């Protein structure tokens, strides 16, 4: 199981480094399959926060702190209510929910990507779209460890500068993941996976290795090829998680 877990982190982390986001979409479903719904999503939060922390120092000057503040205010405010809704849910229901969130989020991201040629949709200083985006991302992070698609949808609709978006996403993902993790530990009865110390070290090395692998792959892979791999892996992982949840009900 640990070898498969390391493989999921390496693939998801390297793709996030190359594509800018997507760790939760790609690695999340496989981690849930391997570890379980509550512990798996919690592990996705931990690794996602650590990954953002490793990247944030390189992009700090390009962060849009105004957007970050509105997004975080909304995402943190929904973390506890979302965790309370998860408390007592069966593993089958959680896996079905996670699978549906992954498939729906990726489909939404693909559909909205077609709007890139359209004009800007939101007023420059209007915080309401940011609040809706942050809340949706917060719920997704608590439920499935997936907070990126709502942010990507907002970025497409608002024609957000790609460099500023990628930079701002890092502190947001880190804060979002930490808030989701704290809410689930305190209010949803979640626990960390019972790994030995050496296994946690291996996971940490896999995290660092995934970023290094992404650095090597980035100049060699086209954005289109990376996007296709990201989409296929996300759909496969989401469908597998959904199928296992359904199978538990039969």
UniProtKB/TrEMBL annotation:
It comes from the Bacteria. It is a multi-pass membrane protein. Keywords: Cell membrane, Membrane, Transmembrane, Transmembrane helix, Transport. Signal peptide: none annotated. The chain crosses the membrane at residues 30-56, 68-86, 92-111, 198-217, 229-247. InterPro entries: TM_pro_TauE-like, TSUP. It is found in: Cell membrane. The keyword Membrane applies. The keyword Transmembrane helix applies. Belongs to the 4-toluene sulfonate uptake permease (TSUP) (TC 2.A.102) family. This is Probable membrane transporter protein.
């Amino acid at each position: 199981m640990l070898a498969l877990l390391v493989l999921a982190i390496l693939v998801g982390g390297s793709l996030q480094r190359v594509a800018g986001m997507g760790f939760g979409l790609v690695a999340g479903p496989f981690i849930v399959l391997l570890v379980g719904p509550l512990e798996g999503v919690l592990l996705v939060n931990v690794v996602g926060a650590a990954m953002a922390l490793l990247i944030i120092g390189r992009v700090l000057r390009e962060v849009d702190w105004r957007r970050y503040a509105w997004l975080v205010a909304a995402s943190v405010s929904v973390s506890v209510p979302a965790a309370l809704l998860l408390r007592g849910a069966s593993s089958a229901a959680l896996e079905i929910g996670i699978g549906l969130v992954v498939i729906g989020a990726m489909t939404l991201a693909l559909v909205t990507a077609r709007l890139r040629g359209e004009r800007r949709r939101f007023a420059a200083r209007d915080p309401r779209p940011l609040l809706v985006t942050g809340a949706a991302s917060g719920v997704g992070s608590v439920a499935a460890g997936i907070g990126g698609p709502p942010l990507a949808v907002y970025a497409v609709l608002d024609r957000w500068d790609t460099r500023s978006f990628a930079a701002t996403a890092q502190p947001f993902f880190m804060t979002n993941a930490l808030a989701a993790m704290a809410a689930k530990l305190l209010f949803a009865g979640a626990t960390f996976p019972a790994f030995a110390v050496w296994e946690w070290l291996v996971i940490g090395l896999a995290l660092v290795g995934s970023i290094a692998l992404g650095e090597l792959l980035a100049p060699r892979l086209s954005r289109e090829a990376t996007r296709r791999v990201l989409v296929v892996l996300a759909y496969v992982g989401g469908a597998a998680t959904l199928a296992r949840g359904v199978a538990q009900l039969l």
